[in-house]
Amino acid sequence: MKRPPPPWTPSPPALRPAFLLSSLITTAINSSLSSGTVPPSLKIAAITPILKKPGLNPDNPNNFRPISNLPFLSKVLERVVASQLKHHLSDNNLYETFQSGFRSNHSTETALLKITNDLLLSSNAGNLNILILLDLSAAFDTINHSILLTRLETTFNITGTALSWFTSYLSDRNQFIYINNCKSPTAPLPQGVPQGSVLGPLLFILYLLPLGHLIRRHGLHFHCFADNFQLLISTKSISTATHSILTNCITEIKSWLQLNFLKLNCDKSEIKIIGQNKLTTSIHNVTLNIDGFPVQTSPHIRNLGILSDQTLSFSKYIKQITKTAFFHLKNIARLRPSLSPTAAETLIHAFITSVPIATASSIVHLQKSSTNFNTSRTPPPIYSPTPESVNTSPPSSSSSTGSPSPR
């Protein structure tokens, strides 16, 4: 979650009443688009360092994500350009088919469903599957502007004034650190795209497009979510040839990343063998050398937040999130005497039914507990009848978030 922007950043309330300024904003945006330039005042960002995850060591700079807070007018301009760019990419079928990051109607859920479906179909056919998870280090911050602009022109056919606009957008950018009401000196930003911007994520996935073509040449299946890559190879038996294909592909990926000023995050690289239990139990560890680091197979890996095992039963993950859901239910129960039924129902939907549960039995268990809790100041036994008057179904299906149903 982004922190509130620093005081210097113009915000929407400062632009009220909107109808008085709409013509000025429209004129400014049209002037920028027609001239192919971005004003310098819109190319300065206040960087707010935010921990990537709660509980990380704040003394380690690598644990922070540099979020850019940009002027409000800059974001309006970027939204206009992003809308036109997305139409161009969609109309000309220029997106990477298997990139689910930063795209409409794509998400971690669609990425997980695709890769899990492929794994299940292959496993049911009696194949062994090797799934490799790769991650990039500080990818947004190392994008080379010259390479990106060349790629926009040659691969995506963005030329003329449009290309001049992107050249102006990327050049002469500046930033400063804003933390604890203190501001650092302004420094130039010679590479990278700003995190927290509208165009940054879209330009990032366009920058990575050739990587998909490279992986296809090696005959591997793959799926991406932003800077996370999943490589998949299916085989009847894991042989020297299989190991050679994977090694050659990863070596070429590493070389391509180096040429494009990107780097693998070996600490987050993982390998897992997936298949029917009778096949996976007889397989010894597979070790791959990724950027000089030996990476061995793991019985459990966390893929886009979902913990899975070698047979895709998701049993450990289901047990973990069910335990978390009941933990929240217990905490809400302590507040129940002070809550109205409506307030209690809201909390239940926020903390319980929104949890991605992958089995029907877990869903029924939680729903019965939540219903009984919400219809009594003193919660009755878990499996008492469910009153029809209480709505325990969340706004959308409680099994439709992120966790694919195991078969």
From TrEMBL:
Domain Reverse transcriptase: from-to ranges: 31-295
CDD domains according to UniProt: RT_nLTR_like (cd01650)
Record organism: Champsocephalus esox
Superkingdom of source: Eukaryota
Composition-biased stretches (Low complexity): 385-407
Official protein name in the record: Reverse transcriptase domain-containing protein
SUPFAM superfamilies, per the entry: DNA/RNA polymerases (SSF56672)
UniProt keyword annotation of Signal present: yes
Signal peptide as annotated in the record: 1-28
PANTHER family linked to this entry: REVERSE TRANSCRIPTASE DOMAIN-CONTAINING PROTEIN
Keywords for the protein's UniProt record, in alphabetical order: Signal
TM segment ranges: none
Pfam families reported for this sequence: RVT_1
Annotated region (Disordered), positions in chain: 371-407
